Amino acid sequence: MKQFFLKIAAIASLTGASLAYAQFGSGVVFDPTQSAHAVQQINQEGQLYTTTVETTKNVISAYNLAKQMASSPSSLYRSLTSSSTLWTNIQSSPNTYSNTSGWTIAINTGSGASSAYQQTTIPRTSQLNGYSNLSTTAQQQIAAQGATADLNDAVTSSNIQTLGTIRANAQKRQSDINTLESATLSSDESQHTELATLQRINLALLLLLKQQEEANQISQAYTLQHIVAQKQQQDALKMTFQQANQFQSGYTSVAPSYSGAAAAMRY
Q: Among residues 57, 99, 109, 197, which one has the fewest Cβ atoms lying within 10 Å of its Cβ?
């Protein structure tokens, strides 16, 4: 009986070992498809990790560069700055006859240009006595010269006002330029952001446009003054032709009497 049980136990032991071997060798743990998928996932995770590390390095490098750009410019371009040249105000002259103070104020500020100019120049002459009794040619000559004087007074007064206003605005603009320069050279990192830089660029462009506008106004003022000078030259040239024409007609009417006098003297 004892031997029977021993045989059954041995058979059971062999059967269990066989079943265990059958489960291990059935492919439940070692599956080639699942193993390849696992290896692929491991490779992807490795690539993702490598990419993350490289991205982190790039971000750190960009931050360090931005920090360096925000902190180092002052040492790069501060030595290149130079002072601006500003128009200085015209100082009051000795004012011997008490008539130049208004002109000085007008050329510095643009205020009261017309009256200030009249105080420093010869007053305008009204129509000459007997103007209406002159010939048409004589009236045209006098009227042309009078128009030249009147236009020259108007253009000069306008130019004084324009230049005085530009001179006054130049002082205010210099203050804006100083503020812009201070913000550009500031060590404050908030002044070195992209938005702050773009705002300063826009402001600089506006200042350039205003200066170009003033340069155009000065050019226009010079052109007007030149036109009046040309008119004066044209008036003188036209008067020369008219005088020559009058001389010819006068000589023709007077010549016979001179011929008779000459004949009488020869006689």
A: 57
